[in-house]
Amino acid sequence: MAAVDTRIVTGFEQDAVPLRGELRAHCYRMLASWDDADDALQETYLRAWRAWEGFEGRASVRTWLYRIATRVCLDAAAGRAARALPADVDALGPDLPGSSRPVRWIGPFPGDSDDLRLAFIAVLQSLPPSQRAVLLLRDVLGFSAAESAELLETSVPAVKSTLQRARRRVAREAPVAADVVEPRDPAVRRLVEAYIGAFARGDVDLLLSVLRADAVLELVPEGFARAGKAACAPVLADAVAHSGTWEMTPATVNGAPGAVVRLDGSPYGATVLDVRPDGIARITVFRDPSLPRRLA
């Protein structure tokens, strides 16, 4: 019996465990939260381990695990409000006590893939969970309509219909491909270096020079958002006034350029920058002291 158990454990470690990274990213795309994704991943592997001995191999291990993970995420999303970014809520006005702003914000996630971009995650969160799942299975992960139908325990026509509705929503709201730039592009790196350097030197003019006129600033979890360089400038100037106390280390977060941030020597959070060819279009600041360690 011990030998059988050893083979089961070895098989699970060899075939299932190596898929943890891509499954975590899938759970994040479904749930828009690093912590929720980790919880879903843990539940996925718990269910998979319990069923491993009876796994017959009629589908690949990868397909089988995605079926479990997607079901876990759908269960987790059921009955919960979707997550959002502050700039996408309440039409970018002054923060009002008792407003309808959600308390469930989209969180950051490590990785350099375009399908982790905050703008894409925000669009996914605007979809019903079932549409979200179908879109990810078909357009991100490359499963066929038949495979997706089997994964979701539904019909092929239902998958095709759901996918059409999801694609229409994404086409309306997702970023234009020409606006998506690579974090390693030299022009992008210069803009990011200028942003970081402005904080290091207390240079407000330098910071404002790299912002687009329609730049957006948002703070999580404060739920604060401002649109337009003129509206962002006083807030950024106040932050830059802490010259010498900010320490920013470049990092790629959610497939975009950004930085992990320390303030007065202590972990502060992370910044994600939406950089376009003509400047920085969006600054999303996540105040979470665990992020510098987790994103290192």
Task: Offer a few descriptive terms.
296 residues, alpha+beta, Butyryl-CoA Dehydrogenase, subunit A, domain 3, Nuclear Transport Factor 2, Chain: A, six-stranded mixed beta sheet, 50% helix, DNA-directed RNA polymerase activity, RNA polymerase subunit sigma-70
Q: How far do the termini sit from each other?
A: 43 Å
Q: How many distinct domains?
A: 2
Poorly predicted tracts of residues = 91-99
Percent strand? 15-25%
* Count, helices: 12
In the sheet with the most strands, the strands line up as 2-1-6-5-4-3
CATH superfamily of the largest domain: PhyR, sigma-like (SL) domain
Helix vs. strand class: alpha+beta
What does this structure look like?
This protein has twelve helices and six strands. By secondary structure, it is of the alpha+beta class. It is globular, with a radius of gyration of 21 Å. The chain has a six-stranded mixed β-sheet.
Brief summary of the model shown:
This protein has two domains: 2-52 and 59-106 and 117-174, PhyR, sigma-like (SL) domain (Butyryl-CoA Dehydrogenase, subunit A, domain 3), CATH 1.20.140; 183-294, Nuclear Transport Factor 2, Chain: A. It is 50% helix and 17% strand.
Which helices and strands occur, and which strands form pairs?
Blueprint (H helix, E strand, L loop, with lengths): L1 H14 L4 H12 L2 H19 L8 H17 L40 H9 L2 H12 L4 H8 L3 H18 L12 H16 L2 H6 L1 E10 L3 E4 L1 H12 L5 E8 L2 E8 L2 E11 L2 E9 L3 H4 L2
Parallel strand pairs: 1-6
Antiparallel strand pairs: 1-2, 3-4, 4-5, 5-6
